[in-house]
Amino acid sequence: MPELPEVETVCRTLNQLVAGKTITEVTVSLPRIIRRPSEPVEFAGALAGQTIRSVERRGKFIRIVMDDLILVSHLRMEGRYGVYPSDEPVETHTHVIFHFTDGTELRYKDVRQFGTMDLFTRGEEWVMPPLNKLGLEPLGEAFTLQSLRETLSKRTTKLKPLLLDQAYIVGLGNIYVDEALFQAGLHPERTADTLKAAEWSKLYDAIRDTLGRAVEAGGSSIKSYVNGQGEMGMFQHSLLAYGRGGEPCQTCGTTIEKFVVGGRGTHICPKCQPKPRNASAQKAGRQERPKGSSPKIH
Ligand SMILES: [Zn+2]
After folding, report:
1. Ligand 1 center from residue 246 Cα (angstroms)
2. Domain 4-127 belongs to what topology?
3. Strands 257-261 and 264-268
4. d(CA 234, CA 253)
5. What is the average pLDDT across 245-266?
6. CATH for 145-284?
7. Which residues belong to any copy of the FPG-type domain (predicted)?
């Protein structure tokens, strides 16, 4: 699934490719991609004649801003946009085509068919699902150390599922939560209410840094996306923890471990990200030693 940096790259690239283009008509061949309005005919009818002003991102959603309308699109697992000349053969699994007055087309292809599109009048999108309940934008100006602490510091939830919850912070998926926690030196099973001031600061810096670097890497690869078929999608970053189970930690050399937290595959360095005390006691199947007693030595 694309994460925030990939979606940011898709939005920047799309903005370069389609801003200023005017839609003549829209072909919908898989109606269930369109959630709003419920009738694809209504969807296509509303879009005809609209000029695209910009393509922006909110969380992992793409916002296509037009004269009077906003198209909110989520790629889910494998959704992809590409811009093609209209005489180029349409690939299979292309479900929505936006035809432009200049003879080009924006095509939406989605092999898994999980992607969604919602059409709103401008402004309406902020007060309705799916954008109305989204949390802090981690690359936005409102995301400060203070807003991060205010949002999360009283929660007794483990850091991993908490950071994945889009109601608090948007756009952090499995990959970048693992990367940010690794960089901050925090175990994913720590609960938010146990973090000290210095740890909040490290977590804040790590979130901004990991996402910022990934967006930069994506930005620098925009050219190669525009070339060829003009198709955009995911790209690989240099990741330090995610997907590196069994490899040595690049900081200390300890083997990166993979395990499951909240149902999600999770990667940590057991030395750089020490386990919370309670969790280690539970795992060893023993109670913590009562105060004052001394360990028995055999
Ligand atoms: Zn390490």
Report:
1. 12
2. N-terminal domain of MutM-like DNA repair proteins (3.20.190)
3. antiparallel
4. 29
5. 96
6. 1.10.8.50
7. 240-274
